[in-house]
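ok trying again, last paste got cut off:
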Amino acid sequence: EPAAQMESSPPEASVSPQAGPSGCNDTSGAAGSTAKKRPVACIVLGMAGSGKTTLMQRLNSHLHQRKTPYYLINLDPAVLETPFGANIDIRDTVNYREVMRQYQLGPNGGILTSLNLFATRFEDVMRLVEARAPSLDYVLLDTPGQIEIFTWSASGSIISESLASSMPTVIVYVVDTPRCASAVTFMSNMLYACSILYKA
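nice, full thing came through this time. structure:
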């Protein structure tokens, strides 16, 4: 669909739950005994290439093996493939390349604008997550490497504040340790982490 149409009226399919990893759709157990249960939301952040998606893959494998109920959300519109099955995927809503073409943006601007478009309907995402909340232990969110989304962009604030208002929310900041052998890279990571901490 054209990106301009998504901005004014994003399609309802944008937040349709998918058949995700095993354990995500487990609704076993008495509803009454888990009515007040709240899952922990984990927003995985980090610079491009730091290993966010790899960490998500390992978390997915670990939780699946332990039969822990969880929910996966992919917020990276530019990723070609994910090594895990996301229950909600931004790529089902926003065509990243169409956003770049229509708004005449580069790759970074396209990703940022795609997240902004998706954030306008994030209440629908929350509605789906909250419907599953009593049967979940974790909600995991993979994010793009454009870390400025969560340092100054409105979409990052909308996503983190929406989650935090509904359930316990933590930010997992992933650092590529070999690159941090350089003092400049290490301090850059620490400053980014601090800015995200105080903004969130």
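cool. The helical segments are 3-8, 52-65, 96-103, 107-119, 122-132, 154-164, 183-199. The first helix runs from residue 3 to 8.
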